[in-house]
Amino acid sequence: MGCPIEDYKWGCLKMMTVQEWTHHLMEVSEGTIQWYPKWNEWETFIANCGKSPNVPLMGTQGCSNYNPILTLRQNGYPIMTPPTEQLITPLELHGQSMQDAKPKSSGATTSYKEWLKPRIKCNGLPFKKIQQDSRTRLIPEIPDPLVVRELEEMLRNAEAERKALKRKLTNTISLQVETQEEETLYNAKRREVELKGQLYGLHRRMDMHMEELLRERSHREAIETKENLALNEIAEEHRRAEEKEQKTRATIAEL
């Protein structure tokens, strides 16, 4: 029969295979490790025991000790400066300076990262760096004040450049719009002149056509007048001939 407390403690952990644990440990970084629980935010912690830089932990089955540097990290204080060789030598750790701890954070400083790079080159890593899971919660790092100032200066320069480009773009757009308006106005005036010319030509042709129609109408009326006069003359001659014939018949009848 197992211990119920141990069963409860291990029941909260996700059971993974060797490959899953290997992959999980390979992708961890200072931002993915939960160094200390939020409820365990201590202002002070034990860094030594008398003159000994290690703190003994007494138990029922023996005695052990813990690393003050690691305790500093687990209590939420960043490693503000890279540790010296003396501090990372086993059983010769001097942790007095850690009592003057900086504000808590889970991020590594720039100086620590710069110190870590040559250490990695010198000692190497047992595995290649792999891409972190995007779903993993990353804890923000403490930015270096110098880097922050440089980034702020770059941001101000970028903002000034953006405003200058915006003004230049606005001026260019205004000039382009003005040029387009002038070109549109010129094209409209030219089109108006062309339409006026076409309208004048159309009126001219209409006038000529009307004059031709009037001439044809006058000519036709003159012809009709002549025809009417000729018909009237023929009718008058026919009437005179009938009257002459009637007189002749009357004369013959009298005889």
From TrEMBL:
DUF7745 domain location is: 14-97
Coiled-coil ranges per UniProt? 148-175
Pfam families per the UniProt record, alphabetical: DUF7745
Q: Which InterPro entries match?
A: DUF7745
- Chain intervals for the UniProt region annotation (Disordered): 236-255
Q: Which UniProt keywords apply?
A: Coiled coil
Return the Basic and acidic residues bias intervals: 236-248
Signal peptide feature range: none
Name assigned to this protein: DUF7745 domain-containing protein
